[in-house]
Every structure is written in structure tokens, then in C-alpha cells.
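Researcher: Structure for this, please.
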Amino acid sequence: MQETRDAFVFRGGAMAAKPEIGSHDIEIRDCDVKYYTKRGFRFRDGCYDIQVINCTADAGGKEWYVEAFPMSFNVIGGAKGTNVYDHDITFIDCIASNNWHINGDSYWNGDGFCAEGTAYNLTYIRCESYGNTDGGWDDKSANPLLIGCIAKDNKKNYRFWSGAPGALLWNCVSAEPNKRGGNSDYVGLWTKGKIRIHNSSFVDSSKPLALNDWRVTPEQIANMNISVNNSLIELPEGKELPAPNYTVSNTVIRPLNETGLSANGVGYKKDMREAQILLTEVRPHQPRIEKEGRLLETKPLNVFSEKNPSGWYLSDWNNAKMKIAKGKGINDSNALEVSTNGSKGGGATYRTKRDSATIKFANFQKSDWALKMSIRTGSTNLSGLELRALTMAEAPKTKEVPLPGTLNGSITGWQEISIPLAKLKASASEANFANFAGFYIRANGSMAGPLYIDNVRLEPMN
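Model: Predicted structure, C-alpha cell format:
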């Protein structure tokens, strides 16, 4: 597959209350992707027990850079705060390359293998990553395991974020990290957590290993550690790996620019045995972990404040219009502005059609919910406006209700309004909302002035 935005997208569809319903037991084999602008392979929202075998993703480098920012293999997990995880995904003999992000003097992203903190138990066996303007690996997941992997010619060949147990690199290579632009330096391996390196080689770089030193406290630095065992590390003359942040044993430290990936019996050795054999040998050193799905505590949930979250958008029909009005919100923040042009009225919608972006009530402890927002009419009479809630579930059917508040222009400041979701159902016998996907405002005729909306949220009523 070539010349696309996202080549392969796997959406799990899991919820915190039902993690088992996520997409699982999938094998992806012998797929080649070239010249994508966003992602070669993307996993999200509760995918698990997946193998990706002998697949390549080449973004095409500088000549094919279109938008921020491409990644070859991307494991996202669930939306922040949902307790939905992608996990137990194994990449075998996969190659990621040439993901570019051009961003002037600011940070250049563009990663080969990328994983977010809402993922765990990711395994990479004999995978390779080349020519990326940021990480060969940029992995925030918990408990990643790399066996026989190679990272070369990336700004940061390996980049790991998680604390204990941290990442394990077994029989891996880092070579020739290369900064192509932006405001951050090159390095063989960077971490703000814990790393164990065994039987590996870090060569052809004056900066083979580094701990995060940006905006960190002494306590955070004390919790970072890189442990190196049975490995080969090249260091510039006069440099060392100081304790206690580095733990080094049975390892050869040699000057730069020497040849070979092993010395005195330690370092990387190419191993083409079957992946399962390698995993059987190494997995005891990095046991799988488990994260239990649990219901989220009921608390106010943001729907709109200052800007729309990812996946949410504004639309309108007939003579109505909705836009983000800069400086018109509470304390000069941004607000949603609803207006009409002409006498026929119309509707304006703030919503998502992306299932992963909806608010799913099954993820939360049981509660009755209300839609709350702040509105402002100024001195204009806007009586007659109606509101309807939107859902992506088959039920409940919903109805339009009069927009609460004093809308005759006698209150010019911000008003707080609240509508129980139960009152937005078409009838009391309808099922409760399974998810919330937005709302629309209907004007049944011309509006004499704009309606401003801010601080939209869902709040538990009990």
C-alpha cells in the first residue's frame, strides 16, 4: 500500500468496564507501506493479543513530508483517563523508516516505533528503525521488551519513558544517531525511567546513553537508572558512565571509531532463530504485567473549554452558524458562538462522530448525569432557542428541549444552566444514554444577536 494518510488502523472498541471486547487475536503479516503522511500501522482503544510479522513502513523521508507528524508503527491505547489499554502486541521482523517532521528551530518529531503510556507488554523481536527525525523507538508504554533490534541514523535511536520495571533491551544495536534539525540533540538511548541493557552494542556515537535532564528534580534523577550488562559501549575519551544512575557489569567500554559489534565475547550477535524460541529464553527476564480495568470515578467531564478536544468539531445547517470566538469566553477565553444569517433560522452542532472520542458512561461508576454549560446572550432577546443531545448509540432517541436560562436580554452576563440527560430523552421509557457525542442548538427563526457558550461539561448529579 502506498500514498495514503493512514494505511492500517485497528480500533479496539474496548471500555474500562469491558476490556475483553477490544479487537484481539489478530495476525498481520507481510504488509509493506510506503509514502504515508500520518501512520503506517495504528493501534488504539483496547487492542490486544496481536502479532505484526514481517511488515515495513517507509514514510519516504523529506521529499514526502506533508503534515505533523508521521510514525511507522503507533500504539496509542485508549483516550487519556479512560483506563483502556492496548497490550500484548508483538512486532516480529518489522522495519520502520524515514519518518520526517520539519519544524524549524522547534522540536522535530517523526518516529519509527511509537507507543503511548496507555499501552503495556509490547514486544519487538528483530525489528529495525532507520532515518527518522526523532525516535527510532519513542516508547512510553509499561514493560516494553526488545530482542535483537537495530536502531540507526535516528535522532534518538531509543527513547523510553516508563519507570519500574522499565524497558529491557536484549541483544540490540544502536549506531550513528543523527540530528537533522530542531532543538534537541542526538543520542543512542535516552530515558527518564529505568532501562536494562543486556548483550547489546552502542557504537558510532559520542553520546551513546543519556538520562533526561530537562526540568527534573533531584528526586526524579535519583529514580532514573540505566543498567548495562554483557555489552559493548563506545565512549569518547574521558567520558564515563557514573554511578549510581548507571550500573555497569561485564561490559567492554572502548573508544569511538573502532570496528565490530562485539568485543571480548560481549555485545550484539545476530540471532535468526525462531521468534518463539528467543521469546522463551528472554521473557523470564521481563515477565508480563497485568493492568486491571476498573470503573472510573464519577467527576465533571470537559466537553468544551477554550478549544474542542481531538475528534470534536463544529458544523451548522440552513442559516445558522457556529464558530470558535476568540476572547469571547469566560475571563476572555474562547467560546462557542452561535448566530444566524437571515430569517429562516437553522441549527448549529458541536459534536464528534469518532467513537473513541465519545464519553462512554459504562466506563464510570453508576450515576445520573447532567449537561451543564455557561451561556451569555448580552442584551439581546434570544428566546425560542432549543437544545438537543447527540449520541452515537442506537438508543435513546432524543428530543429538543427549550434552552434553559433567562434569554430575554435582561441578564447580560454569564449564566450557568443545567439539563439532566434524562430530560433529553424522547420519553422516560427510553434507555439511558450509553454515550454522549455532543449537542446542537436550533434557532427557529432569525437570532437578533449571537449566543456565546463556554465551559460545557457533563457532571454527576449524585
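Researcher: Any notable elements?
Model: The radius of gyration is 26 Å. DSSP finds two helices and 41 strands in the chain.
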